[in-house]
Automatic annotation (TrEMBL):
EC number: 1.1.1.22
Keyword Oxidoreductase: yes
Pathway terms, separated by semicolons: Nucleotide-sugar biosynthesis; UDP-alpha-D-glucuronate biosynthesis; UDP-alpha-D-glucuronate from UDP-alpha-D-glucose: step 1/1
Name of the protein described by the UniProt record: UDP-glucose 6-dehydrogenase
Length: 439
């Protein structure tokens, strides 16, 4: 078993650290935030992620994992240091690498024995060559250090499961030593490993995420056409999915993809291409479709209602997908301000995301409109004039069509996640608008 340090305790770093401990490695997670470190030591996860806390507590009790702000002590004797810090999007769409650079410098100044630095964060192709050079330039002790790429494929909400049962582990190395060490570190996971060079590994991450984003945008594009020609996108997707070359996943049309990955990684790859004088037309199309898709239902409802001024608007779901409290690039963040500008009286429900949303739109008067956060679907729907569904939470899916009819003043529903069958809603007397299906 190996001595592993992990830099950054966000989704990528913390989940990786906990899973390395779970398979038996000795792990120290490093974060600059002392409060967060103390919270983690007490067995509480700073992120909402199924199963994570239990594994944190189990491995902390078994003394296989610890948390610290003291990077020097964590790095100096590590066999491998995994970097999982953020690479947020800059205004021009490129990736901001300043967190990676800070960690790289700390590593260079700390390590006292040969060490493999493994970058899990999503970085533009070629970055890890630079990270390696940067570490060499600042290296204090006479030790061997090499950088490997090991992109992460976990999805929020199922991060622990995705890591322990990954479909593949990608390792990108430039030497036999690095390749063999990473292979040994991952051996206890007993998962398929694809070993390539460093730049290919970096590219695999972007190419995978952007392909999935493209798949979603393609289905959204087809959905919009389905509406015009009188087809049903769910039936179309079902028919397509029997072709193994297409597969049955990520074919759900809706109000566009959100989250911290697809929007950022599509723009980043487009940017990388631009820097090389190439236009990545397919990815650009995925970005364009997604932009329009997010406010599609608002635009439809605007035509139907003329104004939202003074109307009670129920909003069900605020997060970018169920199973997370993350709001990044969520459709709600685009639609709620539009509704508020129009003077809507919003009653918003989300089982976990409401307090984060309230940081952006505090409860009460917001410009011409008003927003109230409620703790159940019934309160949101009660006497509402119109309802928008932005996230397919289980609590939202559990609402029967009859409830909309019973609770709302006018049962008018705009569903961005195609939760209900058109016939059921019609039978219940609900005016129902969804994506890619005839109303
Ligand atoms: C995504 C990828 O799925 C992971 O493989 C990847 O590791 C991760 O990004 C990352 O780069 O870190 P995540 O952003 O957590 O994971 O969420 P997804 O479940 O992929 O959903 C992204 C968005 O696409 C959501 O807004 C979701 O509602 C939307 N989506 C997904 C659709 O609109 N239709 C679909 O069929 C599937």
């Amino acid at each position: 078993m190996y001595k592993i340090a992990v830099a950054g305790t966000g989704y990528v770093g913390l989940v990786a650290g906990v899973c390395f401990a779970e398979v038996g490695h000795q792990v120290t997670c490093v974060d600059i935030d002392e409060k967060k470190v103390n919270v983690m030591k007490s067995g509480v996860s700073p992120i909402y992620e199924t199963g994570l806390e239990k594994l944190m507590q189990k491995n902390y009790a078994a003394e296989r994992i610890d948390y610290t702000t003291d990077y020097n002590s964590a790095y100096k004797n590590a066999d491998a240091i995994f970097i999982g810090v953020g690479t947020p999007e800059r205004r021009d769409g490129s990736a901001n690498l300043s967190y990676i650079a800070t960690v790289a410098r700390q590593i260079a100044e700390s390590i006292e024995k040969d060490c493999l630095v493994v970058v899990k964060s999503t970085v533009p192709v070629g970055t890890n060559d630079k990270v390696e050079q940067f570490i060499q330039d600042f290296l204090v002790n006479d030790v061997k250090v090499e950088v490997a790429s090991n992109p992460e494929f976990l999805a929020q909400g199922s991060a622990v499961h995705d890591t322990l049962h990954a479909e593949r582990i990608i390792i990108g190395t430039e030497s036999k030593w690095a390749e063999e060490l990473l292979m040994k570190i991952y051996k206890p996971f007993n998962l398929p490993i694809v070993s390539v060079n460093r730049r290919s590994a970096e590219m695999i991450k972007y190419a995978s995420n952007d392909f999935l984003a493209l798949k979603i945008s393609y289905m959204n594009d087809i959905a919009n056409l389905c509406e015009l020609v009188g087809a049903d996108v769910q039936d179309v997707a079902k028919g397509m999915s029997y072709d193994a070359r297409i597969g049955n996943k990520f074919l759900n049309a809706g109000i566009g993809y959100g989250g911290s990955c697809f929007p950022k990684d599509t723009k980043a790859l487009e940017n990388i291409a631009k820097q090389h004088g190439y236009e990545l037309r397919t990815v650009k199309a995925a970005i364009d479709v997604n932009k329009d898709q997010k406010t599609l239902l608002y635009k439809k409802a605007s035509k139907r209602l003329i104004t939202f001024n003074g109307l009670k608007v129920a909003v069900l779901g605020l997060t970018f997908k169920p199973g997370t409290d993350d709001l990044r690039e969520a459709a709600s963040l685009e639609n709620v301000p539009l509704l508020l500008e129009q003077g809507a009286d919003i009653y918003a429900y989300d089982p976990v995301g409401a307090s984060n949303f309230a940081k952006v739109h505090p409860e009460g008067k917001n410009g011409k409109g008003n927003i109230t956060y409620v703790t159940n679907v019934k309160e949101a729907l009660d006497s509402a004039n119109v309802c928008f569904i932005f996230t397919e939470w289980g609590e939202v899916k559990a609402v029967t069509p009859g409830k909309y009819r019973e609770l709302m003043r006018t049962p008018l529903v705009y569903d961005g996640r195609n939760i209900y069958s058109i016939d059921e809603m019609k039978e219940a007397g609900v005016e129902y608008h969804s994506i890619g299906r005839k109303a």
